[in-house]
């Protein structure tokens, strides 16, 4: 299992380090590697995942949000692995895209209601950890109130982006008139290229290939409604760099 955190003292290649030395973290061929430490651009409980396909992400275990995507090199572990260095380490690669910050699920009174800064009492977030497949690629597991979510990013084999499958298990009906929304994009320019195709900041193509209800844009956000009916509701999103 390729996981690195602040208790590690050497890189995947082995060997000690001198103060200030760079320690690139590299995923083994065909696998992913996980870095759990302070990553610039996400929350203190951020989880970085680097894939051997040359794409990377940062997931917030505070907000339950996939915050950032980037290409190329994953991250430099030198700051945190040498003498317990402090501070947030930025991604080592390029084309970094911050696709969302803050909670990704909320109940809104209407499609024009402001997105909340924190979770409603009915939807308190709870991180449930992650499972790894045979390639050490994680599926993040979390809850918003009674709603259980599994969130699986999968890298494209050509390194062009990610496919992300979000399974939302609604155990019981919501109250009359309640509508749950998933915020797929925020904080940048979202333009529609079709009913399910969008661009983000002119650099990322975003295709919502599966959802029970159609996505829509507003201001700098892309929202996907989720019916609060019992059962499993699936959202599939493809992110591709232009």
Give an overview in words:
- 2% of the residues lie in helices and 47% in strands.
- With 242 residues, it is mainly β.
- The protein has two domains: 3-98, no CATH class; 105-241, no CATH class.
- The protein has an eight-stranded antiparallel beta sheet with strand order 10-11-12-13-20-17-16-15, with no helix packed on it. Strands 1-3-4-5-6-8 form a six-stranded mixed beta sheet, with no helix packed on it.
- Strand 11 (138-144) and strand 12 (147-155) form a beta hairpin.
- The relative contact order is 0.15.
Q: What's the quick description here?
A:
This protein is 2% helix and 47% strand. The chain is an all-beta fold and 242 residues long.
Q: How many separate domains?
A: 2
Number of strands: 20
Strand proportion: over 45%
Give the end-to-end Cα distance, rounded to a whole number of Å.
32 Å
| Molecular shape | globular
Order of helices and strands: EEEEEEEHEEEEEEEEEEEEE
So how many helices? 1
Largest sheet, described in full? 8 strands, antiparallel
Which value, in Å, is the CA radius of gyration? 18 Å
Work out the helicity level: under 10%
Specify the structural class.
mainly beta
Q: Averaging pLDDT over every residue, what do you get?
A: 89
The parts where pLDDT drops under 50 for at least 5 residues are: 4-19
User: Widest sheet: strand order?
Assistant: 10-11-12-13-20-17-16-15
């Amino acid at each position: 299992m390729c996981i690195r955190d602040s208790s590690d003292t050497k890189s995947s290649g082995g060997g000690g380090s001198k103060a200030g030395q760079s320690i690139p973290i590299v995923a083994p061929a065909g696998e992913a590697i996980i870095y759990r430490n302070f990553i610039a651009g996400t929350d203190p409980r951020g989880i970085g995942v680097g894939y051997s396909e040359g794409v990377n992400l940062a997931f917030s275990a505070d907000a339950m949000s996939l915050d950032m995507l980037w290409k190329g090199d994953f991250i430099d572990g030198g700051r945190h692995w040498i003498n317990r260095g402090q501070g947030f380490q930025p991604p080592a690669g390029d084309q970094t895209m911050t696709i969302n910050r803050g909670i990704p699920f909320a109940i809104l009174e209407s499609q024009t209601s402001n997105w909340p800064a924190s979770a409603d009492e009915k939807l308190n977030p709870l991180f449930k950890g992650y499972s790894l497949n045979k390639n050490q690629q994680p599926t993040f597991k979390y809850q918003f109130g009674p709603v259980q979510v599994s969130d699986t990013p999968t890298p494209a084999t050509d390194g062009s982006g990610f496919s992300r499958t979000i399974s939302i298990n609604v155990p019981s009906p919501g109250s009359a008139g309640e509508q749950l929304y998933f915020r797929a994009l925020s904080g940048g320019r979202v333009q529609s290229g079709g009913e399910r195709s969008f661009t983000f900041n002119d650099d990322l193509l975003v295709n919502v290939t599966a959802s029970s209800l159609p996505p829509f844009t507003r201001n700098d956000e892309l929202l996907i409604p989720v019916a609060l009916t019992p059962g499993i509701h699936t959202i599939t999103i493809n992110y591709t760099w232009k």
